[in-house]
Amino acid sequence: MTILNELGAERVPTWLATTTNPPLTADIIAKIVNNLILIFIVSLLVIVVIVVTIAVCIVRFYRQKNEIRESATGPRTRFRKRDKVLFYGRKMLRKVRSISAATGKKKKMISKLTKKFLQMKKDHLPTQLHVLEPAAEYLQEDVSNVPDQRLPPEVAYMLQSIRMFGVFERPLFLELCKHMQTLHLSAGQFLFRIGDADENFYVVQSGRLNVFITESDSSTVTLKVVKEGDSIASLLSFTDVLTGHPQPYKTVSAQALEESIVLKLPVAAFQEVFEQYPETFVRVIQIIMVRLHRVTFTALHQHLGLSSELVTAPRRKSVAFNSSPAKRGGGAHTNVGSYEENNRTPDLLDSDYTGQSQGNAGFSDGSQQPGVVRKRFTAPIMIGASMSAPVLRHGGGSSASLGQGMENTYPLSTTDEDMDEAMSTAIEAFRMNLGLEDDTLVKDIIHIRDIPAGAYLTKEDSHQDSGLVYNLSGLMAVTQRDGDREILMYHAYSGEFVGALNVLTGEPSVFTVRAKHYTRVAVMPTSAFYSIMSKKPKVVLHVAHIVVKRLSPFVRQIDFAMDWSFVESGRAMYRQGDDSDCTYIILTGRLRSVITRRDGKKQLVGEYSRGDLVGVVETLTCTPRSTTVMAVRDTEIAKLPEGLLNAIKLKYPIVVTRLINLLGHRILGSWQQSSSIASSSAAIENQPSHVNFCTVAVVAVTEDVPLSAFTYELIHSLSAIGTSLRLTSDYMKKVLGSSILESANEYKLNSWCAQQEDKHRIVLYQCDTAMTVWTQRCIRQADCILIVGMGDGEPEVGKAEKLLEHLAVRTQRELVLLHREGGDRPQNTAAWLNARSWCSSHHHLQCPKKMFTKKARHSDYYVKLIRTEPNVHSDFSRLARWLTGTSVGLVLGGGGARGAAHVGMIKSIQEAGIPIDMVGGVSIGAFMGALWCSERNVTTMTQKAREWSKKMTQWWRQILDLTYPATSMFSGAGFNQTIKETISDIQIEDLWLPYFTITTDITSSSMRIHTHGSLWRYVRSSMTIAGVFPPLCDPKDGHLLIDGCYVNNVPGLFFFV
C-alpha cells in the first residue's frame, strides 16, 4: 500500500484507484535510484571476489602440482642474476629480420583493409616521380672490337697514332702512306740524335724507345718512354719544314730500349698533297696552332703556372718609322715596370672611354687632319666551306675589331708625308711577311692607328677581334695574368707582329697587349686576312712561322714529349687499376669518370670537358688509376707523360708548388664531394648533374614545338656568355653544299664541325623533326641533348625521342618544357619525367608570345633580336648559364624570424641585376625559397610572406594548436595549414626554378636532400623545431623528418654535387 501511495492516483491502474495513499515525491525517486546503484555495485563486487577466489584456487592447485613434480625430479637449477642479465641483454639486441618482415606484412594488410573499409581513393593524389638509376650503359665502357679490315696494319697504326691525319680523306691519307718506311732497331740503337735533321714522323709498331733531352752539362732527362702504338713527332718541327725553315735536333734524342720496329713518314710527303689540296693544308696548320694555343699557352699556364718560360724575348729591332710621336714619348727600351700600379689606364676595348679632353681614346686614323671627316673601314664578310674567319660568330663582347669602327681624335703633329711613309712601310711589311708577290691584296685593307700610352690593344680571355697588328713605332708590352698579378712575357718593338696566334685559331686572346708608350701600329682585320687566305692559302705558313719563331726551346721539348690521341665514343682512355704514367688534357670532346665499388656497383665520379686536366692526381702520387675514364663522345686528348712533368719540375722548381696546390685542391674537392654525396639521398648519388658543355643538340618531342624560335632565343642568350653558333641542316647545305651530308663527305663534315667547336664557346645543333642523317650527326656530336616539349601538352614520347635510347646511351639528356607567357603554373611534370627515365633533370621555360607566331618561323624575324642585349633574368638566359656552367645559385639559411630579411635580400639582388637560377633553403630559408621559386615576383612573395607571418603571430591559433606535450608543445595541425595555404599543395618538380631543401632524418640519423615530391610537406619538415612541433612523416618511406638546420644550416656545397 505504501508503494501505491507513493506512485500517485494518476499513475495507478483503475482497479486500484480507490486507494487513499499519498503520491510520490522527487526525494523518494532519488532514494530508489541510489538503492538500485548500491545493489548493482555490491553485486559486482561479489562477482569479482568470486572470480578472484576461483583464480587463486586454480593457481594454487597448479603450483602444488608443479611442486610435487619438481620434488619427484629433484631440485631446480639456479638461474643466477648475472646470467639472467646476459640472457635478456642478448635477447633484446638480437636481429629480428623475420619478425620485422612479418610485422610489415601485417601492417600492409591492416592498411589495405582500413582503406577498403573506409573507401579511401588515391585519385586526388598527384603523380609521384619515380627516381631511377641511369642505364647500365651510361656508366659502362664499350668493349666491342671492330677493327678496320680494309687498312693494312701499318697504315692503321699511323692513322690511330697521329690524329692530325684524321682531317685527310682516306684516299689522301693512303697517298701519304706510300712514302712510309719501316725501320728495324736493335737494343741501344739510336733512332735519331742531336744534329740529325728533324723532318720525319715516327710511330712505334713494336718495342720500346726512350726519348730524352741532353742538358748543357751533358746530363740527360727522360721525356717519355714510347710504347707500341705511340708516336714520336713535333708538330712545331712539322711547321718549320713546311715554312722552309727546317731545324736539326738540338737537345732531343731517341734510343731503342729493346728490339723495335718503327714506322717513318717524311714531312716532305705532305708538301705534294698540300699543293693539290690547299684547303686541307690550311686546316692542318690551324689544328697545330689550336693545340699550341690550348695546350701550351692555356693549359700549361693555368695548371702548371708557366708563362714567360714559353716564349723567347727578342732583341730590340731597328725603328721602322722614325717620324712617329713615339719617338718624342720616350725611349723604346724603357722597362715596363709594374702592371698593377695604374688602374685607370685607358682601355681600347671600352667604347665609353674618353681621354682628357681628347675625345675617344680608341685607335686614331693616321691620315686624320683637323676638319676632315674620317671614313670607317668595313671589310666584306666571307663564309667559306672549309676556312671561315673566326670573326663570324655570336660574340660575347664588342663585335668591332681593332681595325673596325674605332676612331680617335687624338691631335697628331705628323704631316701627310709622314702618314704616306707609314702606310708604305706597313704595306711592304705585310707583303714581305705574308709571302705575297705584290701589294695588290693588302694595300686597301691596312689601316694606321695611333695608340696612347697605357691603352690596351687586347685583354686576356677577350673575344674581341683585334686582327693582325704590326708595330710601326713605339713599344708594346705583352703580359699574362697569374692570379692577381701580371707577368711580362716580352716586349713587342717596332717591326714586330702581334696577334698572329689569335688570327689563326679564332680563340680568345691568351695575352694582354698594352702600349707602353705612344705607339703607331698597322692593323689588318681578321676578316681581311681570311679573304687573302682564300686566294693565297700559303700565307697561313708565314703567319704560323711568326708564331713559332717566338717560342722558346723549352716549348719544342714539350712538343716532342706530348702525344695527340683520339678516343672513340664509349671507349676507355684508361681503366681502374692501370699504371699511372701520364696526364691528359682534353682538346675536344667529353670524358666521364666512373668508379667500380667492391660489390661491383659502378658510380659516377665526374665529367671533364675541353681544357680540363685528367689523371693528374694518380700520376703525381704514383698510384694506380682509381677510376675508369671513358669517352662520352669522340674525344681528342693531349697526353703529358710522367717524364715530361719530371723534366718541368727539374727545370722550373716553382712548378712543384703549383702542382702541390693543384693536388691539394683535387684531393680536398673529391673528399668534400664524396662526403656530401655519401650523406645525401640515393637520387643525388646516381643522377648525373654535370654542366659546362661545348656542344648541345636540340630535339623536339612533337612537331608543334617551335624549335627554330627556341634555338634562336637560346643562341641569343648564349651570346652574352661567349662565342656561340647555331647549326641546322639547311645552314650546312647552304655553306658546305647540298651533298655535305652524304657518306662520301664524312671526313669533310667532321673536320668542319671540329673547326667550329674549336672557334666557339658552345655550338648548338638543331635536329630535324625526323630521324634524318643530320639528326644522327647532331646526336653524335653532342655533349648534352635537350628534349624540348610543350608544357601544356600530353607527356608522350616522340618518335625521334625513342631512338635516342639506342643512339646516345652515354650522353646526358635534359627535358625542357615550354610554357606560354602569362599562362598557368607548370603541372604534371612528374608524368613527363616518369615517361623518360633517361632524362637527368628538367627545366621550365616561360616563353614570350612572339615565339608561337608564324613570323617566328622565319630567320629574318630574329635578325634584329640577335643585335639586342639579352635579358639576364629571362628563362632562356637561365638555361644558357646552366649549359655553360655559369649558373647563379641562392642558398637561404635558417634563423627563424630573421628569415624575413630574405625577402629584402632577394629584392636587392634583383635590383642589382643579379639573376637567380636555382634556390636551396633550410628552415625558414626553405619557406622563403619555395615562395620565390613558385612566384618569381618580389611583390607577390612579399604579400604572401607578410600574411603568413601575421598568422604565425596570432595567439588564438597557437592556443588552439596546444596539445599534451608527449613529443611537442603543439600538434602542428595549424602550422601545417598555414604553410599549405601559403605555398599551395604542389610538387617541387612543378616549380619554375630548380629547388632543394634539407631535413634531418631522425629515423636513420642522417641528412636528407629533397629535390622532388610534395613541396609543403618538405618545407614543413625543414621548419620543424624539435620539441615545438612534431616530426613530419615522409610519405615515401615513413621516416620522421625535422628541421634541417641541425645538420647543415647553409647547404651551399650541394650546388656543386
Automatic annotation (TrEMBL):
Alphabetical keyword list: Endoplasmic reticulum, Hydrolase, Lipid degradation, Lipid metabolism, Membrane, Phosphoprotein, Repeat, Transmembrane, Transmembrane helix
Stated membrane topology is: Single-pass type I membrane protein; Single-pass type III membrane protein
Tell me the compartments it is located in: Endoplasmic reticulum membrane
Q: Name one GO molecular function term.
A: phosphatidylcholine lysophospholipase activity
Q: Where is this region: Disordered?
A: 320-370
UniProt lists compositionally biased (Polar residues) regions at 353-370
- Which reaction does this enzyme catalyse, per its entry? 1-(9Z-octadecenoyl)-sn-glycero-3-phosphocholine + H2O = sn-glycerol 3-phosphocholine + (9Z)-octadecenoate + H(+); a 1-acyl-sn-glycero-3-phosphocholine + H2O = sn-glycerol 3-phosphocholine + a fatty acid + H(+); 1-hexadecanoyl-sn-glycero-3-phosphate + H2O = sn-glycerol 3-phosphate + hexadecanoate + H(+); 1-hexadecanoyl-sn-glycero-3-phosphocholine + H2O = sn-glycerol 3-phosphocholine + hexadecanoate + H(+)
Q: Which residues form the PNPLA domain?
A: 890-1056
GO terms for biological process? lipid catabolic process; phosphatidylcholine metabolic process
Database matches in PANTHER family: NEUROPATHY TARGET ESTERASE SWS, NEUROPATHY TARGET ESTERASE/SWISS CHEESE D.MELANOGASTER
Q: Which family does it belong to?
A: Belongs to the NTE family.
Purpose of the protein: Phospholipase B that deacylates intracellular phosphatidylcholine (PtdCho), generating glycerophosphocholine (GroPtdCho). This deacylation occurs at both sn-2 and sn-1 positions of PtdCho. Its specific chemical modification by certain organophosphorus (OP) compounds leads to distal axonopathy. Plays a role in the signaling mechanism between neurons and glia that regulates glia wrapping during development of the adult brain. Essential for membrane lipid homeostasis and cell survival in both neurons and glia of the adult brain.
Protein name stated in the entry:
Neuropathy target esterase sws
Protein species of origin: Allacma fusca
